[in-house]
Amino acid sequence: MKILPKVSRFLHGGDYSPEQWPSKQWREDIDKMEQAGVNALTLGVFAWSALEPEEGVYTMDWLGEVMDLLAARGHHAILATPSAAQPAWMSKAYPQVLRSPIGGQRNRHGMRVNFCVSYPYYRQKVAAMNTELARRFGKHPALVAWHISNEFFDPCYCSNCEEAFRQWLRARYGSLDQLNHSWNTAFWSHTFTDWSQIEAPGGTGENSCEALWVNWKRFSSGQYASFIRNEVIPIRKHSPGIPVTTNLMGTHEPLDYWRLAAELDFVSMDAYPFYDCRPEMLDHGIEHSFVFDLMRSFKRGNPWALMECTPSSANWMPFMKLKRPQIHRLGSMQAVAHGSDSVMYFQWRQGMGGREKFHGAVLDHTGSTQTRVFKEIAEVGEWLQKMTPVLGLRTKADVALLYDWENRWAIEAACGPTKDYKQYVPTCVAHYKGFWSQGISVDVIQSTEDFGSYKLLVVPMLYMLRPGVAERMEAFVRDGGTLVATYWTGLVDEDDRLFDTSFPGPLAPMLGIENEETDILYPDEHAGVEALPGNSLGLEGGWKATTFCALIESKGAEVLARYTSEFYAGSPAVTRNLYGKGTAYYIGFRAGHDFHAAFYGKLATQLGLQRALEAPLPEGVTVQVREDGESRFLFLMNFSGVEAVVELGSVNATELVSGQANVKQVYLEPYGVEILRVH
Ligand code: GLA
Question: What are the residue numbers of the active site?
Fold first, then answer.
């Protein structure tokens, strides 16, 4: 499904700030777009003071002129609402508009995303601004999408937000007795006797009540969701049929992006990976594949948009290392491989002053079209043009991996079982790598999504089981699904209260085990694990367990592997339990890629999971698929610094960009990428 009804090509372009330039420059900058194979600009992201220089006085002609220039050349505009940076006059006249970071003391004016998400006046002003913009430009021929605000960031901790939080808690818990019980506030005399006693967590305030933290973040995510809704209402009214999005930042911890995504027509994301051609780049590549699959999963497999990446370097990075030749092409194609229908940049034209004057741009401060960067962008533009048949295609995944924001907050808020080595997100990515390296597509979903369409559900460290999740997992397995859970799963309910049964709580019967204790090893220690001879998965060999070693007892599950060291040598480390028509596995220890490759390799074969190609892939190479019932495209990407050859076996394919037919094997240069059309 296409995300932009008015567009039948990949969007290629970037943020442009005409308000930073004299008007005579606009035509010149827009004239250069075609040479770069660029067809879209995002306008107005931080333009409030140019759109409403004083309260109630709207000055939008300049924006109209730029949109007309784009339309005249057949280019597209993504129009941003300017709420990410309120103007100085507003902060001065209405100081409550300013955000309060953790601790609750209001910021002064400046920076960006420096507004209070709950303040009614700001919501009204944003709605009024969006009404003006949508009335004026909502049906403009250049307009293809609305870009709500920019990179929503962090909760606001001001007194307005605190009061809204109390109201939200009243609605959620009904009574203080219920809240006190759910949060176990009798601990350290934290019992609340009046709603007014509840404050935002953090700073010099409450830091020892995990349920408060988790609920504060739930509430704050909801505030941002309703902030977006408030922005979108006038747009939908005056600009019907033009989809809305906002730019997300991957797995950004403070906000539950599922809540934000639900308000949007399509999801978009800003990606700034450290693609520096060092050995670690492989892991950064895998992390980004994971995040891109998350973007795809927000809208159940529909395409999304890469809204920003840098054409060369990003000035906020500790080192502004330039992207080596062709690295940008790899990063762009990677986003498309995982479902993006665009490659957009921050920024089209470098500004002459301000904090981002050294940030990479397609046009540098001189506006030259002869730079290395400009030429590489033009090449990506050519590729994207040839890739039009990929537009709108989806990815079918047999596997879902759970990455759950609420669970992450709860894990991070908990005091124990290790301070710095909980590593929830890296653990999810480590399991994901087991599939990435086999060319098996994965959806990345939260625990409340539907599991029904998957063959395999991977559940790393699902410490918090939200209501109904255990029951749905059980039903999934009973009906024939396969589930893999790990250590530190099934410990607490949605209020961070421990389950009153053995771990993994309500999942224990399905997994056929009980987890009595978990040993946490120091970073320089490990325990041994070995496969049991003749185990039903065919696992062989031994591995290292680091940090987490769950001590488990089988309650009917087959033991596939056991510990070989520590006082728990001989006890189960990996188990398999037949349950209903399905199977539930438990991995009791933190494993490395050698274990994940072996374990998920065996499982993939046993379950007949669809691989992009049958032959094993060279190290550092992945293959991702976009398809529909008729067309199938393979994206072969090499994230290693050595060349690689990929055998296609019986696949009959044509190289999409070069047009070469009957390809039997693909040579990938270091960091190379090829796209194949499969017949
Ligand atoms: C973010 C923002 C942009 C810009 C870039 C710089 O993604 O959305 O406005 O600041 O970072 O990398």
Answer: 151, 308
